[in-house]
């Protein structure tokens, strides 16, 4: 296990980058705690896999350093970093049995036969392949082969870190939950430092202790699922986390008051923020109203998704979403929306700002 430090880390695939837009990975300075499980979450092209490949040694960064427990390993080859990596598509030895595939990393490191047998049997049970241990890998399905890849990553107990690059892409949907649960159990039992790359928020939020949200080559927030939901540090986090994502309203600020069009919103605190300002409110905190104060709104459709209803509304030409209970009636005369005070976030140039007297910051 290892504490992973990213020190002034940045990377460009161009030989002579001239500005921020030339960098696939913009400058990062972060410490990732020994023994925690992290998920790198973001849309395709945001820099997740680039960062993972730098940590694993498959790619050397243009700038900065990577340290394991304070030791600079930036130029160390992958073999010397003592990590296990599982890729998006399965990598198995077709001519070997499942048992031989799982045992391969341990045999390479000279473990004794009894220890190898114990670990292989345990991991075989974890990936639900005990009955196939003596079967050749050649004839197995893609999801079965990926389970072997996951198992080969899990079989070692002495690794500095386990790295997963979208490992469940080829897994059947009904197996994904089970494998995520097994990964969580592995982390609980052995305390490996784990980094899991995904674009799927459900995978990230159910797997990780901390989620690292990336956008445009930057880490915009590191936090628990609850922190990402309640206090998104960047408008992208609000949009990307949650289904539907956070609603954003262009606003002007005047102390405790925000103005959206002609409507006046009590912000619950005093704000002073330069630049383009917005109010962010998740659908769960939108209040449907008939008359009174608030923003003029028109219901355009209602989607019943089983556990709740998603109400789509037109608010001054922009579609926004609200969440209503499964048993709630949606009155035909709704013409306004309001905001629950505890659900209001204020943003300046896409970054969350705190009211005066509270701690403000760009990223958790």
UniProtKB/TrEMBL annotation:
Signal peptide: none
Taxonomy of the source species: Bacteria, Pseudomonadati, Pseudomonadota, Alphaproteobacteria, Rhodobacterales
Keywords: ATP-binding, Cell membrane, Membrane, Nucleotide-binding, Transport
GO MF term list: ATP binding
Gene3D superfamilies for this protein: Nucleic acid-binding proteins, P-loop containing nucleotide triphosphate hydrolases
Entries under InterPro entries matching the protein: AAA+_ATPase (IPR003593), ABC_transporter-like_ATP-bd (IPR003439), ABC_transpr_FbpC (IPR015853), ABC_transpr_MalK/UgpC-like (IPR047641), Mo/tungstate-bd_C_term_dom (IPR008995), NA-bd_OB-fold (IPR012340), P-loop_NTPase (IPR027417), Transp-assoc_OB_typ2 (IPR013611)
Sequence ranges assigned to domain ABC transporter in this UniProt record: 4-241
Family that this chain belongs to: Belongs to the ABC transporter superfamily.
Full protein name: ABC transporter ATP-binding protein
Pfam hit, one: TOBE_2
Keyword Methyltransferase listed: no
SUPFAM superfamilies: MOP-like, P-loop containing nucleoside triphosphate hydrolases
């Amino acid at each position: 296990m290892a504490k992973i430090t990213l020190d002034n880390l940045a990377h460009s695939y161009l030989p002579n980058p001239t500005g921020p837009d030339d960098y696939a990975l913009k400058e990062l300075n972060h410490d990732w705690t020994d023994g925690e499980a992290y998920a790198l979450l973001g849309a395709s092209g945001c820099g997740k896999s680039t960062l993972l490949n730098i940590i694993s040694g498959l790619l050397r960064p243009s700038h900065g350093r990577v340290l394991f427990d304070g030791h600079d390993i930036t130029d160390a080859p992958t073999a010397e970093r003592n990590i296990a990596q599982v890729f998006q598509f399965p990598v198995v030895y077709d001519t070997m049995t499942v048992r031989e595939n799982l045992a391969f990393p341990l045999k390479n490191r000279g473990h004794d036969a009894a220890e190898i047998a114990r670990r292989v049997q345990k991991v075989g049970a974890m990936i639900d392949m005990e009955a196939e241990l003596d079967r050749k890998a050649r004839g197995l399905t893609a999801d079965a082969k990926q389970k072997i890849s996951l198992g080969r990553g899990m079989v070692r107990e002495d690794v500095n870190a386990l790295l997963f690059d979208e490992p469940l892409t080829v897994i059947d949907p009904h197996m994904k939950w089970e494998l995520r649960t097994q990964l969580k159990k592995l982390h609980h039992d052995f305390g490996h430092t784990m980094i899991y790359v995904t674009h799927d928020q459900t995978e990230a939020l159910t797997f990780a202790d901390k989620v690292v949200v990336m956008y445009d080559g930057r880490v915009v927030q590191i936090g628990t699922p609850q922190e990402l939901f309640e206090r998104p540090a960047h408008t992208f986090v609000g949009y990307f986390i949650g289904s539907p994502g956070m609603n954003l309203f262009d606003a002007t600020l005047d102390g405790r008051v925000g103005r959206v069009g002609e409507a006046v919103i009590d912000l619950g605190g005093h704000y002073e923020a330069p630049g383009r300002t917005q109010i962010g409110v998740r659908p769960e905190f939108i209040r449907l109203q008939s008359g009174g104060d608030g923003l003029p709104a028109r219901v355009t459709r209602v989607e019943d998704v089983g556990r709740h209803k998603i109400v789509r509304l037109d608010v001054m030409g922009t579609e926004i979403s609200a969440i209503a209970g499964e048993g709630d009636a949606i009155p035909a005369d709704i013409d306004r929306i309001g905001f629950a005070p505890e659900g209001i976030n204020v943003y300046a140039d896409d970054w969350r700002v705190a009211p005066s007297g509270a701690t403000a910051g760009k990223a958790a």
